[in-house]
Amino acid sequence: MLTLALRRVGTRTMWMRQQGKKTRHPGVYRVNDNSYRVRAVGTDPRTGKKKAVEKLYEGVSAQEAARNRAALIQEIEAATRVATKQRVSDFARSWIASKAVSVDATTASTYADALEQHVLPVLGDYWYDALAKVDVQKWVDDCFGAIWKTPSGKKKRYSRNSVHGWFRVFRTMTRDAVDALHLPTDPCVRIRFPQEELSEGTNALEPEELLRFLAEMRARYPHHHAMVTLLAFTGLRFCHASALKWDDWDEDKAVLHVRRKHVRGEIAPVSRKKRAPSVIPVEPELAEVLREHRARLASAKAPGFAQGWMFPSDAGTLRTPNTMDRAWAKCLDAAKVKHRFTVHGLRYTFTDLIRLSKADAVVRRALTGHVTQEMQQHYSHVGTDEKRAAIAGALRLLADAKAARPDQQRRVNEPAGVNSGVNRGGAEEVMVS
Q1: Which CATH code fits 207-420?
Q2: What angle do CA 167, 171, 176 make, to 5 degrees?
Q3: pLDDT per residue over 312-345, tens digit each?
Q4: pTM higher than 0.70 for the full model?
Q5: Quick one: which of 104, 124, 23 has its CA closest to 69?
């Protein structure tokens, strides 16, 4: 049936091209007394090439056929100037599919979760060209007022950071939609958020807090201690640290080579999206911890050790952050850390310590892997000796904290994390992600 239909269409097209006599109207051909074949040619603004459309009009005059031809030409040349009618949910599906090939798996999963769980249930049914700023503002306001239940049944409100994260994903998608769908306005412009309340603490630890936390981890969970210490003393992201092998550690030169990353079971080279320094100095304090950890794994014949992995799980696979959840919570409680502190907070803490040690801003960026495209060549000249001096300076802060009076209290009125925007040791901030 489809083949027959195609043949009929092809036959009719050939008939339209072969039949008809020219009239005084350009592109209008008379087939019979009240039928005219119209050929309209215009420039497609999407390709810049000529595009032809042919139609047969019956029961019209030559003048009417000419007007119809003019309308066809306008449709061809104005095709991309009209907003495409598409729902937010439909565009989101195609947008996520396009992002999946250009960002890493973790980022794509974050985008999908924010849209599926929090954006589309409220805004998904709107036509994108009809979505107004007031609709987006109401969604943001409702998110701040929403209450959800934890698995244990406890009622909680969404944090400001969570709502900001969802909005950033939706705003990024909407900016792409403005271009792709030719939307008249961007509904995410000038969205307001409730005034932020002062936080009791940031996602970072002071030197004395870090020492207490590491001591508790060593005493209670020695199989986690080495990885936690490495994260604290190098500032590596968990995805890079979990993929380290013993061959990556050059003990003679006292450096660690970062060659790969691990994300949800997939191992890949270090990406441009999530940078890491290729070489990190290993100071004697960290080297001692790593040697003890290696001896423990060898003695226990731990699964994964024979394959060369530095931090294998109990099953011999590579670790994920949630494998330390229970140990993490118990050690925070034992170390009397009352504010929120996550595994990624070790990265903030490291950057904070490096800044407090008065390390040069260029060295700080080189150690954390935050290298802008404009300054990449300049930062590449940061040598291992400079990095080693910076890390040694940070470890001296911990040594000073250890020697300090035990009753020394934390400065509760001063933010501890680099992400707080307060610079205690230099003129330039290094934002950590």
Answers
A1: 1.10.443.10
A2: 155
A3: 998 899 988 888 999 999 999 999 998 889 998 8
A4: no
A5: 23
